[in-house]
Amino acid sequence: MSRFRHQMKRDVPGLNLASLPDLIFTVLFFFMIVTHMRDVNPKVRYEVPQGTELSKTANKGGLVYIFIGKPVDAQGQVVSDETRIQLNDRYVSVDQLAQEIAHERNQMSESDRQHMVVSIRADRDTEMGIINDVKQALRKAGALNINYSATSSHNPQKHN
Predict the structure, then answer these.
(1) Whole-angstrom Cα distance, residue 20 to residue 26?
(2) Which of 13, 26, 49, 80 has its CA 20 to 30 A from that of 90?
């Protein structure tokens, strides 16, 4: 007989999880920093048209969004075939648009009022008459700085 016994069963050492919370918080902070949060949730479906002369706007203050497209429900399914106009988070008609823009302008700070930009995000199949009516209503409201959203790629983006 020998003096040393050989153990047949060896235990696996435990995994050190001391740095796991640090890693989780680092990943969480990373995603919080790089994630873009939406200001407005579209209630209409629109397919952004393609453009050739595009430029990116840097103005974040005083930005008002107008979405033009088919209305959708909470699951993103198209509800009807009529074209609807959405100003920020609510539906408006062309007749109400001028006074709603004035209301949005009154809620802004003085510096944002001077640099207010109206961003129109219309579906590529929207009739030009509706977009012209929206432009006329914006002109009546004194909102003369308008930009249009478009994509430069050959694959248009679909949004809910």
Answers:
(1) 10
(2) 49
